Amino acid sequence: MQLATVGDDGGARCRTLSLRERHGRALWFTTDQRSEKAMQLERQAGAEACWYDLTSRTQWRFRGRVHFLTPQQHPEDTLRLWRLIDREARARFCGPPPGSLWQPPKSDHYRYLPPTPEDHPAEDFSILVLTADQVDVLELAESPHRHWQYHGEGRGAPTRLVP
Ligand SMILES: Cc1cc2nc3c(=O)[nH]c(=O)nc-3n(C[C@H](O)[C@H](O)[C@H](O)COP(=O)(O)O)c2cc1C
Predict the structure, then answer these.
(1) Atom of ligand 1 nearest to the CA of 99
(2) For residues 136, 140, 13 and 85, what is the CA-based torsion angle, rounded to 10 degrees?
(3) How far apart are CA 21 and CA 43, in angstroms?
(4) Which residues form the Pyridoxamine 5'-phosphate oxidase Alr4036 family FMN-binding domain (predicted)?
């Protein structure tokens, strides 16, 4: 999915994240607390996630507030998702912060990845939770296209909009 936030200069920022789990209207992603997005979201918790499902030809947009689950406060959930990501992704948490200046490796063993314990999430590992208060669905499979907006818990009837 693409996750959009507002940068410190007020401009838009967007990047791809892998959706790991969905709990009702909450989308769960894994990320590094040292990343720019984590810092931006500490100041401004609003974000929007968007993706297009090619099979059903449907665009989904989730807009809402973000909070983080950390290993210290949520050991069970963070351990479950820590085990879900692959070894290389885990190893990145032992390296320099994402977005920092690239330093050429000192040894020839540049492909060597430090072992990361499976049973102990890295300190900076976290779960980014986006809880939607608005879900926007655009269906392209049928003609005319259909555009729906769900508010709040999403239990009420959606509003139909012009596509
Ligand atoms: C296919 C794909 C999947 C990605 N999945 C994640 C992810 O699950 N979590 C994450 O933090 N970054 C993921 N990234 C990297 C982010 O897009 C981004 O480069 C990184 O998180 C730093 O973003 P930031 O500087 O805006 O914080 C993924 C990138 C791609 C292309």
Answers:
(1) 25
(2) 90
(3) 25
(4) 1-69
Q: Which atom of ligand 1 is nearest to the CA of 39?
A: 27
The letter for the amino acid at 154 is: G
Nearest Cα neighbor of 117 from 60, 64, 79 is 79
Residues with beta carbon inside 6 Å of ligand 1? 13, 15-18, 29-32, 35-37, 98-99
Cis omega (within 30 of 0) for bond into 144: yes
Report domain extents, the chain: 2-99+114-161
Nearest CA to ligand 1 atom 25: 36
Judge whether 125 and 93 are in contact, CB under 8 Å.
yes
CATH architecture of 2-99+114-161: Roll (2.30)
Which pLDDT tens digit goes with each residue over 67-116?
Answer: 999 999 999 999 999 999 998 899 999 889 999 999 887 765 555 566 67
Q: Can you tell me which residue has the tokens 């976290």?
A: 126
- Ligand 1 centroid–CA 159 distance in Å is 32
